[in-house]
Amino acid sequence: MSLSEIGCCGAYCGRCRVLREHLCKGCRLGYDTGERDPGKAKCRIKVCCMQKGYTSCADCPDLDACPTLGEFYGKKGYKYNKYRQAIAFIRENGYPAFLEIADTWTNASGRYPKG
Questions:
Q1: Do the beta carbons of residue 10 and residue 82 sit within 8 Å?
Q2: DSSP 12
Q3: Coarse DSSP helix, strand, coil percentages of the chain, rounded to the nearest 5 percent
Q4: Which is more confidently placed, 67 or 16?
Q5: Which residues pair with 6 in a beta bridge?
Q6: Which domain of life is it from (predicted)?
Q7: Backbone phi, then psi, for 12, in 5-degree steps?
Q8: Nearest to residue 3, comparing CAs of 43, 42, 35, 50?
Q9: Which pTM value belongs to this model?
Q10: Between 20 and 30 A from 91 (CA), which of 24, 55, 57, 62?
């Protein structure tokens, strides 16, 4: 469990099957160690987040007005809503609480406590 396993958009790479099977390098992993070049990143969300020095988009004061995230979260598919939910949870409860919950998941997203 680490902050570098949280994708800028809210995906939790630490439990992602695709990452564990080495079919993906993850969103943020390897940039802090120099294994990956941030200049070659293609994801607009990741590029923006990393350029601003944020852990995830949850740290951005312009989150609600971001057209890039709005477009991303507006796509059809279950995962986009789950990633939006993750960012909202982080903003409200912080990264430690998110990592505690995310560590129980089996995929890049999961359930949150009710209440």
A1: yes
A2: B
A3: 50, 0, 50
A4: 67
A5: 12
A6: Archaea
A7: -110, 95
A8: 50
A9: 0.88
A10: 24
